[in-house]
Amino acid sequence: MSRRNVAKKREVSADRKYNSKIVAKFINHVMKKGKRALAEKIVYGAMEKAEKQLGVPAMDVLTGVLANISPAVELRSFRAGGVNYRIPVPIKEERSRFIAFGWLLSEARKRKGMCSRDRIALELLEAHSGHGGAFRKFEENVKVAESGRAFSHFRFFNTGGARRSNPSNNIGGNR
Predict the structure, then answer these.
(1) Is residue 162 part of a domain?
(2) Would you say the pTM of this structure is higher than 0.70?
């Protein structure tokens, strides 16, 4: 077991335009190879485009999208009796937001023939209205969680692996 200290969570500073930590987290999620200025340009452009099309403030668009596609449970795999079960486990709001951003960006990146700003804006619009790729992933997550609810009692068991006895205690060669 490691003797090091547990890494402390660092606070994300709010973004410049909307003064929101949620937007700052979204920018960090979009950012690749440390190019923050480019990520900010993409996110702000996408939010402005969504704001123009919906006629709703950009922050309300983003919070509406997160309300529509943030999962309440995460599916964790558990092996019991030679069968893998996907068990729904409740998650914190921060983890839920992280998963929602991942779904949103993965579905936006699947769209071809547009710039990143337009792809993200289109995905934001669709997720806000309750359809689109990210919303489909959310619904699929809910369905699988419903079907795995019967096995949710497994989450209280130790999932750290099988218990093994100390081999030096096995006198006589019993394994």
Answers:
(1) no
(2) yes
